[in-house]
Amino acid sequence: MRAYYYDNVPGDQRLPHDYSPSRPVSDETLHSINVKYWQIPVEGYEQKINAIAKERNYKNRDTINVSKAAMGEIYEDKIKTFFEEHMHEDEEIRYILDGSGFFDVRETPTDAWIRLAVEPGDLLVVPAGIYHRFTLDEKNYIKALRLFQDEPKWVPHNRNEATDANPYRLEYLKTIGVGA
């Protein structure tokens, strides 16, 4: 996974949106906002994923294929929905099996976007309460294993005054030492 600051230049969300020169984001910065990741080779991944799932209490999983071929007529609407800034009340855990894309997470307290370029073998944990969004890259395809602590669900809470006061958002801010 490659992490860098998003350039905020208008245009296709599927482009890299990297500054020139690039402004990489350190592991320490990701750690400070509670974003976790591992690189696990896809070949023979099951044992390592199972160990992490057991350690982190992930009880359920499924596979998602985000592509026009797999999603048909709802594809463009889904891509737009995924790219709206939102948070979840659960961790978002994704292991990339094939394809590639971008997760953008808000750095707090700067409110800058950090772009996480994911590809096969990347396991990413986006914490509950962090503002983020997702998009495919120009290949328009990603296949990911989704892991869940409880029943599989994906409920986005778009950023607004209500989500700023959401208990999961407030708990997230507290865990990274912002607000109290």
UniProtKB/TrEMBL annotation:
Cofactor or coenzyme needed: Fe(2+); Ni(2+)
Localization in the cell: Cytoplasm; Nucleus
Entries under CDD domains matching the protein: cupin_ARD
GO function term, MF aspect, one: nickel cation binding
The name this protein goes by in its record: Acireductone dioxygenase
Pathway participation: Amino-acid biosynthesis; L-methionine biosynthesis via salvage pathway; L-methionine from S-methyl-5-thio-alpha-D-ribose 1-phosphate: step 5/6
An example Gene Ontology CC term for this record: nucleus
Residues given in the record as Ni(2+) binding sites: H86, H88, E92, H132
EC number: 1.13.11.54, 1.13.11.53
Catalytic activity from the UniProt record: 1,2-dihydroxy-5-(methylsulfanyl)pent-1-en-3-one + O2 = 4-methylsulfanyl-2-oxobutanoate + formate + 2 H(+); 1,2-dihydroxy-5-(methylsulfanyl)pent-1-en-3-one + O2 = 3-(methylsulfanyl)propanoate + CO + formate + 2 H(+)
Function of the molecule: Catalyzes 2 different reactions between oxygen and the acireductone 1,2-dihydroxy-3-keto-5-methylthiopentene (DHK-MTPene) depending upon the metal bound in the active site. Fe-containing acireductone dioxygenase (Fe-ARD) produces formate and 2-keto-4-methylthiobutyrate (KMTB), the alpha-ketoacid precursor of methionine in the methionine recycle pathway. Ni-containing acireductone dioxygenase (Ni-ARD) produces methylthiopropionate, carbon monoxide and formate, and does not lie on the methionine recycle pathway.
Lineage of origin: Eukaryota, Fungi, Dikarya, Basidiomycota, Agaricomycotina
Keywords from the named record: Amino-acid biosynthesis, Cytoplasm, Dioxygenase, Iron, Metal-binding, Methionine biosynthesis, Nickel, Nucleus, Oxidoreductase
Cofactor-binding details, from the entry: Binds either 1 Fe or Ni cation per monomer. Iron-binding promotes an acireductone dioxygenase reaction producing 2-keto-4-methylthiobutyrate, while nickel-binding promotes an acireductone dioxygenase reaction producing 3-(methylsulfanyl)propanoate.
Gene that specifies this protein: ADI1
Family stated for the protein in its record: Belongs to the acireductone dioxygenase (ARD) family.
Record: residues binding Fe(2+): H86, H88, E92, H132
